[in-house]
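From: lab user (bench 3)
To: helpdesk
Subject: output format question, protein + flavin-adenine dinucleotide

Hello, I'm new to running complex predictions and I'm not sure whether the block I got back is the full result or only part of it. Here's what I submitted:
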Amino acid sequence: MSFEKKNWDVIIVGTGPSGACLAREIAKRHKKVLLLEKGQVDLSINIPRMLLNKEMMFIGNGKTLVRGIRTGGTSVLYYGTAYYPPAELFAKFGIDLSNDVEELKRELPLAPLKDELIGPAARKIRESALNLGYAWEKLDKFIDQDLCTPGNFPFDAQWNATRYVNDAVESGAVLLTCSEVTRVILNGIQAVGVEAIVQGEHRKLYASKIVLSAGGLGSAQILQASGINKAGEGFFCDPITIVQGLAEGFEAGHEIPMVAGEIFTKEGFVLTDLTLPKLVYQLFSLQALRPHRVWQHGKTMGIMIKVRDGIGGSIKRGRVHKVFSKSDKLKMQQGEGKAKEILLNAGAKKLYSTVWTSAHPGGSARIGEVVDSNLKSEYDNLYVCDCSVIPTEWGLPPTLTVLALAKRLAKYLLQ
Ligand SMILES: Cc1cc2nc3c(=O)[nH]c(=O)nc-3n(C[C@H](O)[C@H](O)[C@H](O)COP(=O)(O)OP(=O)(O)OC[C@H]3O[C@@H](n4cnc5c(N)ncnc54)[C@H](O)[C@@H]3O)c2cc1C
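Helpdesk reply: Thanks, we reran it on our side. This is the complete output you should expect:
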């Protein structure tokens, strides 16, 4: 096959925000880029299929983790909230992302939501939080707000990484979906290619540079299969719970989530409004043994607590396991206490917390341990660029950070 004979300039594994951004930057400069993606194009939320594909998985003690295995990666499922990379954290590793963030600000639809687009539940929660003295600020969203009208939030209005994948392909990159990379091909201390199951067939593909952007779980697994065993020893996943309550006198249900909130940096958690998509709401009600709440989506308001969990657990041979520490649980309890206070003040009743889930696996191939500050591994020509390189515990929306890391790596590789 032609893609097999070619010696690619760069093979990028994974099409989430990091892989897509990197492919776009490098393809624009007329390099031969091959993008390998395990999943296929899928914009749906189909829970049985997500369980089957391991997009939703159990990680221990009944707790779940969600990530996307599809073109665009997890950004197809995400809530589109942007948080700027913490400069001091990256400065410790000699990394300055400020120029990359400025570029992204020019390219992406990043802004807090206009007041008229904020839904009724998020508005009530914000009023209540401000009234109680919280610094409940609007958050930047990855949303083309001109495509939205009050109460109408088309899926296409929210930026996701498929847009960058399309740009990369338009600039000449080749995308192969249903193509799972199993290991890196090594020649002494050099990485020279990857082994992959491409649309059902075993292939060896060669390139001058290889970048793993297979996400917080995927990259660690490929590194381990390639002999880098310290990858996957410990990770974070930013567990969340949602305190949900019922309120009268408003019609909620379909609104833009994570519009505003507060980051409790010292305490180690974040609070934001969160109205779940209906199907996910129903699943969470059942999981929390509240079948009678399944039909009350339109009366529900919720606050999400996202905790900065410690690095722990392991990703080994496809098994992802994490037991949360006492300190993680304490942070969650503190966050739940504040969320309940805000919801009760907003008039919500019959509060309960959903079962913990997680949506940000990362820190499994940390800068300073598995890769250096140029994101290079111990093998020449092998780089990692995605949530897995985040060097410490995290607890924040990571998409803007991995996009900035990808911009920075692209400049380095193009030098
Ligand atoms: C419900 C939900 C809400 C979220 N909300 C937000 C939010 O509001 N803001 C925010 O910043 N973040 C949010 N996130 C998290 C965000 O989507 C991810 O952190 C981000 O997409 C990570 O990007 P990535 O490039 O590191 O990896 P991913 O997006 O996970 O992409 C990895 C890609 O690699 C592919 N892959 C994996 N293994 C292989 C392999 N062996 N071979 C080939 N391909 C492979 C996968 O299929 C996938 O396409 C949310 C996540 C979820 C689940």
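A quick orientation on your result: The chain is about 30% helix and 25% strand. Let us know if anything else is unclear.
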